[in-house]
Amino acid sequence: MEVRDLGKKLVALVAAICLAVACFGLAACGGGTPASSSSASASASASESSSNASSSSFAANPADKFVGSWTFAAAESQGVTMSGNFGALFDMGDSGMLTIKTDGSGTMNFGGETAEFSWAESGSDAIDVTVIGDTKITIAQTTPITYKDDALFMDIEQDGQAAIAIFTKDGVYAGAKDFALSDAKPISSEANLLGTWKLVGMKMMGIAVYGTSDSLSSMNGGVDQSLTFEAGGVVKIGDTMQGTWAMDANGATITSEDITGVHTYPVLMLDGMLVADMTEIMQGQEFATIYEK
Fold first, then answer.
1. DSSP 172-186
2. pLDDT, tens digit (0-9, with 9 covering 90-100), for 213-254
């Protein structure tokens, strides 16, 4: 089915943008020449919003809150956020670790490469990180990192793509959305199903990807990603495909065909959102697409 393939493509695309650039432009991860961040204004805003809350806790030395080991937990790029258990999906091992030391030094491990850096305080809730040493980086780069809500936000840009990498101590970003598929309920009324639903998120093996329908569509070249349920059992998938839907005592299902064959899968409701759960099609690997009207 096109929607399933689209979901896989979007996850891979966000991963390529957000994960690859999170390694300070190391050749092994991105292959591009790193550039100065173009999203410093976002960091400044995050810094300003959190300065009052954090200044009293770290009055002795505001930079102390940056010190320690941090794990990659989420990323934002082009209006799309990706968060969850990256280690399980991408087999990162010790990668995705940011270590900041009290002596003004630190390390970043990603994609099998380790970058050393120096850092200096640039505000009560911000530091500037500068990569040093032999890290396969062709030019020196200084990257801002801001602190907010027990997380570090790193502004980065590579190959014309701006992103924010988010690190937390435990690898979980509390500010991110999640789609708990186990809480989704069967749909028992046709009235709750009919109409057009636009793609706003996905859940894949513990990773949640979400944004506005426009931002998700833009990342896929403007392709129509909606589902339209019509009376009589017809469902339109985007503007090029068509399937059928049915409803019985167990809830609603969609049946559609792609190059791999004919597939039937449940359509559920989760907090007012429509969930197309294709986990069974993916041989038991969690995968679902999320829609809103």
1. --TTS----GGG-EE
2. 999 888 777 888 899 999 999 999 988 889 999 999 999 999
> Is the pTM higher than 0.90?
no
Say if residue 290 is exposed, middle or buried (CB neighbours under 10 Å; 0-12, 13-18, 19+): buried
Asked if 81 and 209 count as a contact pair (C-beta separation under 8 A), the reply is: yes
Contact 117, 129 (CB under 8 A): yes
pLDDT 10s digits, 270-287:
999 999 999 988 888 889
